[in-house]
């Protein structure tokens, strides 16, 4: 890219005994892949404001949106090397290193956002956060974007037959790759920052994403058919380098934790609102919207059922059971 990557790890933390209040001055470099005007982009900005205000400017958060520093392929490694201290990848992307997180990609697992929040604030959330530790990652929390919809280039996806011989962009994730295959499409894992380029090369026909991502990256201009399918959720693990977290004082940890709680509560509201507002904007532009029929939805569910069996056969049965206990 056009940005040179600064060697951040050496300058990230130093102590200044002259300072009042917090006795450490810290810079947290926080990289993410979406635009600023999205649920994740806005929540990251809000988190930055809260942390800086509560620490009296002693803790500084530098944001790098739009994949300007790192993309889907290298941001987790960058975090593990402490080249940045925070990232917020989707559950799907985390699942490559921490397979338990793949459970959140199971199609039709959740019916509404409230259920997602309830599940993630239960023991399920604790289990998922603990699973990060073996990768040297500290889980600060969860942010939501919303439900994924299907978006297509030449014709709307309305039945399973419409996926036949279509190339479908997915995030790199085992569950999502298998989902695309079960639907009848050919999966193509593409890093988020490359999606517009593969669309313009006509290398994909269909993708799944949230309305706010579709709007903020202008996918709707080339792929004008959106099917409201709500077949899966898209949300984020907010992650910090474990050694960096461990190096912080109790007071700094407290400020970050409280700011994270406030930012996460705000995130839920803003995420819903942005997805609704962006739908209106795309409608005004002339994007075509369809809704998956009840009958067709039942067929998609049946077709995708093998994903649940697959997940249960692995060692993650407990986590799926724990989610189901929260939902029923
Ligand atoms: C995607 O790759 O489609 C999303 O993960 C982008 C994001 O971070 O919301």
TrEMBL record:
Protein's recorded name: DctP family TRAP transporter solute-binding subunit
Lineage: Bacteria, Bacillati, Bacillota, Bacilli, Bacillales
PANTHER family, per the entry: C4-DICARBOXYLATE-BINDING PROTEIN DCTB (PTHR33376:SF7), PTHR33376
InterPro entries tied to this protein: DctP_fam (IPR018389), TRAP_DctP (IPR004682), TRAP_DctP_sf (IPR038404)
Record keyword Transport present: yes
A Pfam family reported for this protein in Swiss-Prot or TrEMBL: DctP
Superkingdom: Bacteria
Keyword list, A-Z: Signal, Transport
Family per record: Belongs to the bacterial solute-binding protein 7 family.
Organism whose genome encodes this protein: Kurthia populi
């Amino acid at each position: 890219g056009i940005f040179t990557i600064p060697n951040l790890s050496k300058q990230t933390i130093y102590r200044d005994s002259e300072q009042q209040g917090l006795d450490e001055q810290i810079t947290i470099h926080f990289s993410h892949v979406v635009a600023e005007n999205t649920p994740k982009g806005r929540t990251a900005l809000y988190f930055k404001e809260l942390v800086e205000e509560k620490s009296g400017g002693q803790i500084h958060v530098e944001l790098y949106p739009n994949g300007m520093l790192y993309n889907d392929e290298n941001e987790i490694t960058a975090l593990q090397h402490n080249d940045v201290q925070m990232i917020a990848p989707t559950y799907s992307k985390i699942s490559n290193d921490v397979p338990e997180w793949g459970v959140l990609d199971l199609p039709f697992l959740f019916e509404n956002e409230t259920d997602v929040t309830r599940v993630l604030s239960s023991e399920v959330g604790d289990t998922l956060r603990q699973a990060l530790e073996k990768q040297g990652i500290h889980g600060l929390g969860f942010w939501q974007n919303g439900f994924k919809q299907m978006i297509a280039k030449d014709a709307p996806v309305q039945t399973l037959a419409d996926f036949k011989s279509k190339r479908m962009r997915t995030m790199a994730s085992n569950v999502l790759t298998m989902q695309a295959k079960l639907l009848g499409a050919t999966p193509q894992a593409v890093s988020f920052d490359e999606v517009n380029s593969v669309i313009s090369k006509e290398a994909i026909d269909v993708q799944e994403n949230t309305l706010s991502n579709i709007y903020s990256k202008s996918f709707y201009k080339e792929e004008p058919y959106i099917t409201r399918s709500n077949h899966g959720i898209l949300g984020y693990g907010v992650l910090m380098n474990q050694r960096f977290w461990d190096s912080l004082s109790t007071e700094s940890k407290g400020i970050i934790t409280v700011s994270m709680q406030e930012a996460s509560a705000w995130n839920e509201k803003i995420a819903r609102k942005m997805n609704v507002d962006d739908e209106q904007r795309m409608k005004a532009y002339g994007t075509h919207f369809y809704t998956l029929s009840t009958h067709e939805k039942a067929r998609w569910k049946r077709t995708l059922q093998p994903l649940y069996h697959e997940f249960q056969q692995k060692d993650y049965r407990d986590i799926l059971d724990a989610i189901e206990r929260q939902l029923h």
